[in-house]
Amino acid sequence: MKKVMRLFFAATVLVGLVSCNSNDDLGSQAIEIPGITIDATDGDCCSAKEALQVYNFLQTLTPVPELSTSVEGQYDVNVYSKTGKLHTGFNELFFVVNKKSSGNYVKVFQISDLTPLMLMTKMGMQHSTPVAEKVAYFDDDYPSVKRGWVSFLMNSSESGSWTLGYNVSVLGSNGGIEAADITVDALPDGQAWLKNFKWNDQTYFLSLVNPTDWKTGANTITAYVSQKSNPITTPYALAEEQFTIEIDPRMPDMGNHTSPDNVALTKQTDGSYQGTVNLTMTGRWRIHLTVRDAQGNIVAGGDNLDEGYSSLYWDVTI
Q1: Residues near 274 by Cβ (< 8 Å), separated by ≥ 6?
Q2: ∠ at Cα 74 (173, 169), nearest 5°?
Q3: CA-to-CA distance for 126 and 291, rounded, in angstroms?
Q4: Taking a C-beta distance cutoff of 8 angstroms, is the pair 167, 113 a contact?
Q5: Measured distance between the N- and C-terminal CA atoms of the chain, rounded to whole angstroms
Q6: Beta bridge partners of 31
Q7: Quick check: helix, strand or coil at residue 52?
Q8: Rounded Cα distance, 85 and 67, in Å
Q9: pLDDT digits (tens, 9 = 90+) for 54-97
Q10: Residue 8 clears pLDDT 80, i.e. is over it
Q11: CB proximity list for 298: less than 8 A, separation 6 or greater
């Protein structure tokens, strides 16, 4: 049973902790962090304030138990997603390492070789899928949380199943998971977040990021473009080419009307593609895509622009 440590801090002690977030003054109130003992002399782990911020963030996520492991009996590695489940298309994964002796969050660790693999048993073949370029820190408020992603090409079924592995290094200790059996669910009807196209004898994948977070009105739209690997069992890395992805959102159930003020997705310094999609009402939207190369030539989609449609699209429901 996890114990609850009640930590009291005098105002003078808190001065050294406020540096994590100068706008968050806890004063001298009590802090309760379930299962965590704070040792101010342990520089490997979070301070009390950092640990509280991380703990609160993790309450917005759900563990993925099959991806958890331990390292040399000293550290627990826990993996989270938004729902605790995995589905076709883009999935964020959050990694946290806890020191067994205190339960506190370790601040410095490395996650590498994120390796998804689909076993197509009936066809006698295997293949991978698009993955993040790296698993990395993403927010200064959460100094012991790393984020990566996997975009699954298909769901688990009778004809195939998925495994996922990764390596972890924590303060000189190494471990990881070679190949954990995982279940990848199909997306609900009205959702299609991963599409592919072929160009110059290569296959590319367009992974749409977290459209369930969208609301009516203007939304930042983010996607990744990955290239199929050779051999295909190697995780699919981000494509080196620079594309522009033009978008034309339509509502198939409402006469295919569109919306104004949409901005094409362009490549960012972190390798993602970002633009703006304006969704004027709730319901199912089909986001038609036209992919252009660096010279402006159409390489995919955009094959029926006179009517405002494309055979290449994402489907989302808000």
Answers
A1: 220, 221, 222, 223, 265, 266, 268
A2: 25
A3: 29
A4: yes
A5: 40
A6: 7
A7: helix
A8: 11
A9: 999 999 999 999 999 999 999 999 999 999 999 999 999 999 99
A10: no
A11: 290, 291, 292
Tell me: pLDDT of 297 over 90. yes
Report how far residue 118's alpha carbon sits from residue 34's, in angstroms, rounded to the nearest whole number: 37
What tokens appear for 184 in the block?
A: 């990848």
Write out the DSSP string of 144-198: TEEEEEEEESS--BTTBEEEEEEEEEETTEEEEEEEEEE-EEPPPTT-B-EEEEE
Contacts of range 302-311, beta carbons closer than 8 Å, 24 or more positions apart: 302/246, 308/248, 308/250, 308/256, 308/258, 309/248, 309/250, 309/256, 310/248
Tokens encoding 262: 């949409």
Nearest CA-CA partner of 318 in 184, 191, 193: 191
Q: pLDDT (tens digit, 9 = 90+) per residue, 157-215?
A: 988 999 999 999 999 999 999 999 999 999 998 899 999 999 999 999 999 999 999 99
126 CB burial (10 A radius; 0-12, 13-18, 19+) = middle
144/98 Cα distance (integer angstroms): 9
And the tokens for 236? 């699919």
Query: Token digits for 9?
Result: 């801090």
Find where tokens 């296959």 sit: 203
- Predicted structure pTM score: 0.89
**In sequence order, what are the residues at sequence separation of 6 or more whose Cβ sits closer than 8 angstroms to the Cβ of residue 29?**
none
Task: Give the pLDDT band of residue 267 (cuts 50, 70, 90).
Answer: very high
At 252 the three-state DSSP class reads: helix
Residue 275 to residues 126, 219, 316: CA-CA distances in angstroms? Answer: 34, 8, 16
Q: Are 288 and 308 in contact (CB under 8 A)?
A: yes
Burial of 299 (C-beta count, 10 Å sphere; 0-12/13-18/19+): middle
